[in-house]
Amino acid sequence: DIKDIQDIRNLTRTVLDFPIKGIPFLDILPIFQNPKAVEFIINNIVDHVTSTKEKIDVVVGLEARGFLFGPILALRLNAAFVPIRKKGKLPGKVIDVEYQKEYGPDIFEIQEDAIKQDQNVIVIDDLMATGGTAVAAGKLVNKLGGKLLEYIFVVELTVFDGYKKLDAPLYSVLKYDT
Ligand code: PRP
Ligand code: MG
Q1: Ligand 1, from 15, 28, 101, 160: best to mutate by most atoms within 8 Å of Cβ?
Q2: 46, 67, 171: which is closest to 126 by C-alpha?
Q3: CB-count exposure of residue 33 (10 Å: 0-12, 13-18, 19+)
Q4: Which ligand has the nearest atom to the CA of 153?
Q5: Confidence category of residue 102, pLDDT binned at 50, 70, 90
Q6: pLDDT by residue (tens digit) across 11-36?
Q7: Which of 65, 156, 172, 176 has the most ligand 1 atoms within 8 A of CB, as the residue to mutate?
Q8: Is 61 in the pocket of ligand 1 (CB under 6 A)?
């Protein structure tokens, strides 16, 4: 049974040396073994987002694990869902941005017509470490004229001080300090 945030924490686990040697990888996938845990997390985020009273137009989810939470959240907020994907995966006209993450460089893309001028946008991902991924996503949202209200993470790894990089407020369901 899922009563509190500690029960969610207990469903996550650290896998050493993944995807490369030296990286302790936080695996959130066991959460999806328990529908009540998924519901707890989504409820937690919906409560937070709706408490700010601003209508969210677009939920932007980041490939790959942002796709697990983004569409469910968008449905609950009666908002659009827009994916940001790694280079070469999205059809049609896209804009891109290069970024650095915990273990190397990557390129993100978004479809050019996915966000309209002045739409209220939140970005969601499973986890923030250095914040490099989130910042890149924020750049794409801003380039398309969206108003980035907040970054949402299920897990924040606080040791990287990623929040210092962000150009918008952040909300995380769980903070890990080791
Ligand atoms: C992980 C995680 C975040 C990002 C966080 O994704 O899901 O998106 O790293 O790191 P950062 O804050 O240091 O940028 P990853 O790039 O491993 O890819 P995936 O989600 O496609 O598996
Ligand atoms: Mg990711």
Answers
A1: 101
A2: 67
A3: exposed
A4: 1
A5: low
A6: 999 999 999 999 899 999 999 999 99
A7: 65
A8: no
pLDDT score of 159 more than 70: yes
CB-ligand 1 contact for 132 (6 Å cutoff): yes
User: Cis omega (within 30 of 0) on the bond before 64?
Assistant: yes
* pLDDT value for 101: 76
Q: What is the dihedral of CA 150, 155, 161, 164, to 10 degrees?
A: 0
ipTM: 0.98
Residue 172: HSE in the Cβ half-sphere, 13 Å Cα cutoff:
19
**Nearest protein CA to atom 13 of ligand 1, as residue:** 130
pLDDT in tens, 66-95: 999 999 999 999 999 999 999 999 999 999
Which residue, by CA, sits nearest to atom 10 of ligand 1? 129
Domain spanning 53-176, CATH architecture: 3-Layer(aba) Sandwich (3.40)
